[in-house]
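Re-running the complex after MR caught last week's input typo. The corrected sequence lines follow. Everything else is unchanged.
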Amino acid sequence: MRTANVRTIVVWTLVALVGAAGWSVLALARGENVSAAWMVAAALGSYAIAYRFYAKFIVYKVLKVDGTRATPAERLDNGIDYHPTDRRVLLGHHFAAIAGAGPLVGPVLAAQMGYLPGTIWIVVGVIFAGAVQDMVVLFFSTRRDGKSLGQMAREEIGPFGGAAALLATFAIMIILLGVLALVVVNALASSPWGTFSIGMTIPIALLMGFYLRVLRPGRVSEVSLIGVALLLLALVAGRWVAESSWAGTFTLAPSTLVIWLVGYGFVASILPVWTLLAPRDYLSTFMKIGTIALLAIGVVVALPALKMPAVTDFAKHGNGPVFAGSLFPFVFITIACGALSGFHSLISSGTTPKMIQKETQIRMIGYGAMLMESSVAVMALVAASIIDPGLYFAMNAPSGAIGTTVQNASQVVSSWGYHISPADLAQAAKNVDEASLLSRTGGAPTLAVGVSEIFSKVTGGSLRAFWYHFAIMFEALFILTALDAGTRVGRFMLQDMLGNVYRPFKNVSWKPGLALTSAIVCALWGYFLWVGVHEPLGGINQLFPIFGISNQLLAAVALAVCTTLLVKSGRLKWAWITGIPLAWDATVTLTASWQKAFSSDPKVGFFKQRSVFQDAIDAGKVLPPAKSMDDMHTVVTNSTVDGVLSAILAVLVVVVIADALRVCVRHIRRPALSTLSETPYVESNIVAPAGLIPTREEKEEATRDAVGAPAGD
Amino acid sequence: MRSALQRAISGVRWYVRELMDESAYDRYVAHVRRNHPDAEVPNRRDFERMRTDRQEADPRQGFRCC
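Corrected-run output:
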């Protein structure tokens, strides 16, 4: 460790001042519109300080990464999945793998409580929990040849905790897929433009797949460029279709879309990878990185003013229309991706550790990529907060609450204190070439309106409708890729589990088993999708909290594994690094699942909701927002399923945490009983910088050894 | 001496090829030649097929998060 020089001290003092200025303005400004610049300043200033000081402290003092130790990529190099990858490339890979629709959706929904609670949680959460989780999992998996989280849980905690973790992961995957699909359905319902352009992605992907398989194998960049060009063409053509006589063919009701989507999911997951999945993945990686970069530039160039209040009354009373429940714990589960996301632990263990060149790079890859995802979440929050709050609530409240006409919606939203006229609501829909924007729940349409606002500021107002559908397409593309990939992973887990009962299932290419397990997985997430679409109380309103809870519960599993490993590897005094986030996350999620299951407020608690509606059925009454006896029965069934599910998930995670705690206590009492399955030390021959920009010492070292230097320098 | 523009273009090209794994074949060939000089090197078509088949067999490779 060198001593700090004056320049370093001055630079970091300035960074701290910028961050502090951002936070002060965000927190203290009242009664006027704050510029998004302050939110950007607060976030970036905090990220820089966390990366420079906290992450560095964890890497060198706690984990004690060893630059002389060979990583799995170096030791097991097979030129395919294990190979040392340039740190800048791996950062891109890892970021593209962790960031998807999640960080774009959660913050939009959480904006109902105002922009401040969401911003604080996104920034503080990522610094102390999310990025730490990603990095520590990456470290331990790298020390174990890239073992998956499930394998680490089994080996380091025990078979019981391991099985619970596996089952929780499977359940979480199903809920995730169901809710993501619901977001797509809500964005595409009765929108011929959107439906056409998303539908066209299928033939485009098939064409790309054929090109890569038969015409020019492996030429990914050129085929992706062709794909992106065709995609933009499909987007433009969407408008022509919407204005032509074909519009009716592509104007689909939500329940029709459900059938199409489940059918698509099933067919896509049994087709060979090269036909749809691989080309779609190239397309969405291109679009993802391109659009996120565009959005970042757009936010910085346009610097729009935040129209949403810093904290709304819904935060204080917990009676918001988007999702019910109070600020604690529900903001912390609504925003999962971007602050703390359990799913990342599946990427940080598994793919990335097999490609990392040096242990010293885990800060840049694990912590750095998560900070980038967090900044995406901040941008989504900016996009949701710059649109008129009246429009925001009209778009995100279920139709049971605001009705189906602009007059009715305007009246209800104004009664909440956010004035918007019926004419303004109609105009907002017309601006983006949609029939209506009322109750377009799920976050994607709101984000698209915000994005079109930002982009059209830069490109001129005439392109507003184009940008809206561009943003919808961009999100739907991620989600469809996730549906396909997720169904395959779910199927793989199911094949593995069923293989213990009936041997042939273990053979993943056994066709009947393949079709059967794919059908089961699609039917499971399809069930949640169907329920979400037909839910009289609003599908997103009911299901999104379960999605958030499940993602955060997976984070609890990952943090429990990390904490156990810190204790077992003799780092007891540093166990708080993941122990405190674990305690916080467990408190938040278990409180949330408890409230979702047992709260006495029928808007929040599923079982209370069930009994209220059941009593009404017994009395022969129909309670609004239900319109018929059938609706009433739907509510009763759904709340029972949702309540039982919340409770089961919570129990599974309590089992994992309790088992982890048992292992930690046993280790502290009798360390001799513990085994640690770390791969033995092998000396590394690779020389590579730890951070994005090589330091002077690293450059000298590289020229001395002159090996392993990447091309392009 | 290459101009800064040329360097920037080749840098971007290198990055995109690496990020999209277009360079996978070249890397694999280099790996086989270096470590197993006697082994036969597959052609690009067969190599790309093998890569997608591997993904087929274990879909957790290349999994995308929400």
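None of the earlier attempt is carried over here. The longest strand of chain A covers residues 34-35. Chain A has two domains: 6-190+252-673, 688-713.
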